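To the wet lab folks,

You asked to see what we're planning to order before we commit. Fair enough. Below is the target structure as tokens, and below that is the sequence we designed to fit it. If anything looks off to you, flag it before the synthesis order goes out.
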């Protein structure tokens, strides 16, 4: 990878690592459903302008089923679940649990696409589980009932990402990756829209919250996707995936700086175990 590629990778990790901090700010004010819906709809609007500028046709009639499925499992569900989790657990917890996504992806790929489960992947899976256990049981603060639900929500979101990546790999062939990124967000937004009356914002929306939400959506779900697909084009999907390993470190830094969250030695060790496990799963072994 060239120096510009490394810089783009670090920038992407910093942006996506910051998404969990933004969630801790906007989700309590807007509620999980509104937060998730605005995130995807604002990002879609921005990407739509970009697509028109470059003349990209998303071919709705041909790929609408793929866009809906990916919209559910790569947008609507995980964004809602992480927004819910942000109400109850530190940002660093969510980021570390998000790093288990490739573990779920490996499992689903084995069952649906027939990919081989090696001893290396099994070891990686158990290392990841050990890391999750360490983060969620030995980190700072007591783990109450709602925090446990939040942890389950994060793992559910990571599971959704695993389903989405497997589906995209096996069943969404032919669709432009940029088109998938944009169109699936519109699908996610339309699916979440009817649910807003069930859980409206709990209070008045301040200018600071509105600006935070706008920045969050444009930066973390708009521009970040363009950076990600530029990386995939330049260095390949496998190397671009390493952003997963860098995100938790940035989340810990941002959450400590901007939210005053405490990062313990146990949290760092759990993060290392999760990332080592994920690394074993995504690394190509000899067998």
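Sequence we intend to order:
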């Amino acid at each position: 990878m060239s120096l510009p590629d490394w810089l783009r990778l670090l920038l992407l990790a910093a942006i996506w690592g910051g998404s969990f901090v933004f969630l801790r700010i906007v989700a309590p004010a807007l509620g999980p459903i509104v937060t998730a819906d605005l995130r995807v709809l604002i990002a879609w609007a921005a990407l739509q302008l970009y697509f028109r500028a470059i003349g990209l046709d998303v071919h709705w009639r041909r790929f609408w089923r793929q866009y809906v499925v990916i919209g559910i499992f790569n947008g609507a569900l995980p964004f809602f679940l992480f927004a819910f989790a942000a109400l109850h657990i530190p940002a660093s917890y969510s980021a570390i649990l998000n790093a288990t996504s490739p573990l779920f992806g490996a499992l689903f790929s084995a069952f649906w696409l027939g990919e081989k489960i090696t001893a290396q992947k099994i070891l990686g899976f158990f290392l990841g589980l050990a890391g999750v256990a360490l983060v969620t049981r030995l980190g700072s603060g007591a783990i109450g009932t709602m925090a446990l639900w939040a942890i389950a929500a994060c793992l559910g979101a990571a599971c959704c990402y695993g389903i989405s990546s497997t589906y995209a790999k096996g069943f969404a062939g032919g669709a432009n990756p940029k088109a998938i990124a944009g169109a699936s967000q519109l699908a996610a937004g339309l699916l979440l829209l009817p649910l807003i009356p069930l859980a409206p914002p709990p209070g008045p929306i301040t200018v600071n919250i509105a600006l935070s939400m706008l920045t969050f959506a444009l930066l973390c779900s708009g521009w970040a996707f363009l950076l990600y697909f530029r990386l995939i084009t330049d260095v390949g999907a496998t190397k671009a995936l390493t952003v997963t390993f860098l995100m938790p470190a940035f989340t810990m830094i941002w959450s400590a700086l901007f939210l005053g969250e405490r990062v313990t030695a146990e949290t760092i060790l759990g993060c290392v175990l999760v990332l080592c496990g994920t690394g074993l799963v995504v690394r190509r072994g000899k067998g």
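Structural context that might help your review: The chain has one domain: 3-282. The chain is about 80% helix and 0% strand.

Thanks,
Computational group
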